[in-house]
Amino acid sequence: MINCQYCKNSKPTDDFYQSSIRKDGKNGSCKECVRAKVRANRAKNIDHYLEFDRKRANNPDRVQARKDYQLTERGQQKASAAKRAYAERNPLIRQAHNAVNNALRDGKLARASCCETCQSEAELHGHHCDYNKPLDVMWLCDPCHKAWHKDNTPIYCDELKLA
Hints:
Blueprint: E1 2-3, E2 10-11, E3 16-18, E4 26-30, H1 31-44, H2 46-57, H3 60-71, H4 73-89, H5 91-106, E5 124-128, E6 137-141, H6 142-151
Antiparallel strand pairs: 1-2, 3-4, 5-6
């Protein structure tokens, strides 16, 4: 049994992290206290940690690891499950997406040839500013679509108004 230097409780050695500094080879704080200190520090410095997480996620090795994972069977299953869960959580948004896809297929709506913001001819997304108007879409390239969502919030439907 070891006494935790923070909570002052006597706990079994398994409740302490390893440490090369102390004679007994255990950290002076129990795992529970260490975790509480880490959570408190993250909450106190949340802006720093969010920026750190954002930069870390964009490291080339992490980006490649995510791409590799998406090619595995488990990665594909997780992606499919996430898409199904999104559709279940957002049925009206999904209906708007389906309305656009059906209109494109039936020739009632035409895809623009270039991005409405930057005039790029890259792959375009049909973007809804207002989900109450499912066939009123802006055609945006991926960077412009992300920038739009960073600076704006679309109007979501509260009830079934889609045609």
